[in-house]
Amino acid sequence: MAGFPSLRPRRLxxxxxxxxxxxxxxxxxxxxIYPIFVRHGKGLRNPIGSMPxxxxxxxxxLPNLAEEVAALGIPxxxxxxxxxxxxxxxxxxxxxxxIVQQAIRMIKEHVPELLVITxxxxxxxxxxGHCGIVDERGYVVNDATLEILQMxxxxxxxxxxxxxxxxxMIDGAVAAIREELDRIGAQHVAIMAxxxxxxxxxxxxxxxxxxxxxQFGDRTQYQMDPANAREALLEVALDIEEGADIxxxxxxxxxxxxxxxxxxxxxxxxxxxxxxxxxxxIKAAAQHGWIDERRVALxxxxxIKRAGADLILTYYALDAxxxxxxxxxx
Length: 330
Ligand code: PBG
Description:
Blueprint lengths: L15 H6 L10 E8 L5 E3 L7 E4 L3 H10 L4 E7 L16 H12 L4 E6 L12 E2 L5 E2 H18 L3 E4 L6 H11 L6 E8 L6 H6 L20 H13 L3 E5 L5 H10 L4 E5 L1 H12 L5 H15 L3 E4 L2 H9 L5
Parallel strand pairs: 1-3, 1-4, 1-12, 4-5, 5-8, 8-9, 9-10, 10-11, 11-12
Antiparallel strand pairs: 2-3, 6-7
């Protein structure tokens, strides 16, 4: 390959039009999924302290929010529920009139074209705050948890969910969920698996948002060790074999190597979750005036897409869609 002076990469960076013409990655509203926290009550839009700009919503507020999301061209939301009460099994998680079931129906009734994804996990619903059934030694029992997850997805499908997203890193969850959805005639409901979900401290702000901190210990017996990449590929392979339609890597920015490897290795849509801590860090630095929020947020999302993500779950979805609509950012 000839080098300088015949090759001058700066030639194609000279003007905005040239840069636009050769840009390899384009972020669009189509790529984004907006997480929404729902709680019991009326007329509520409670700010989440650890995530400035994000709120816990009561169900009656969802039609307006869903319309706003859809109007911005964002195809999907993912729902997280805060139950009225918690117990060992997380009963509200699979109740017909549970908070998420109500939210699904409300959104589907008012904005049917907006895709509703549900997070399928037990930690927000259990009194111990773990993502499964816990035995007397504090161990999350795998196969007993699968039966609960089956009840949860059946109730979500009955309420009208389009996609279910198991997030507990319980072995065999995707197979158990696919089997149950098919058994009840919900073959059309897709599975977006949190396939490579790491035991990350970047989830800190979410635990205030969803009121879901573990009451003892941590999640390292089921979520992945941040040091492991090969194991992430095993997790993704297993979930695809079990029937996952979309596979997710979480968190996003600190795990772009995983996103890139999954993209390279598997022919399935890949999602990445730009998590609460990633969001909160940008917000906090921006509030100090240390960084330009808009540019840093869009750069982050573009980098996640460049690494290979087709879809990005992000608390920045609404802002990003507005910024993209209102003009190029670079
Ligand atoms: C539930 C769940 C969590 C997140 C998504 N689903 C919390 C956790 O695993 O502790 C984190 C999302 C975020 O930090 O934005 N299991």
